[in-house]
Amino acid sequence: MRAWLRRSLRLVEVDDVVQESYCRMAGVADPALIASPRAYFFTTARNVALDQLRKNRVVGIDDVAEMAWTNVVDESPSPERLAGGRIELRRISQLIESLPQRCRTIFVMRKVQGLSQRQIARQLGVTENVVEKQAAKGLRLLLDAVAAQSGRVELEQAVQSDRPRRSRLGR
User: RNA polymerase sigma factor 70 region 4 type domain location, by residue (predicted)?
Assistant: First the structure.
């Protein structure tokens, strides 16, 4: 293991990686489930070494080139993605707020708070069927509104088109 780490990475403290790998292996709840202990140990050591590299954050380009055996990717989102995500979240929040009251309440309880249909039905004093239909309606209206915003159509138009139309003759 030490020889493999020395060949693969010069930046990490080999003894620290080995020790941490043993500690992680000792923490495995059921070692009998590990099909290939040797491969598991090497994978654990590789992950420990990568963690050390990420913590060091000072990596030379030559050292990265030598690490052809794995991909070191910074998985944190870029500032542009963070800003875009915040804008999208604000937009979806506004769309949720524009849903009809009952539909919005059930949609938020179901999709945002993660409550079950049964819990929502009990809290609101309605049937589970009503909860299911209102959650589906809310999702459909949101999807329609998101699609419509591409064409600059408002959610209110999507809500109005979803309401049953009454003819003057049927009154």
Answer: 90-142
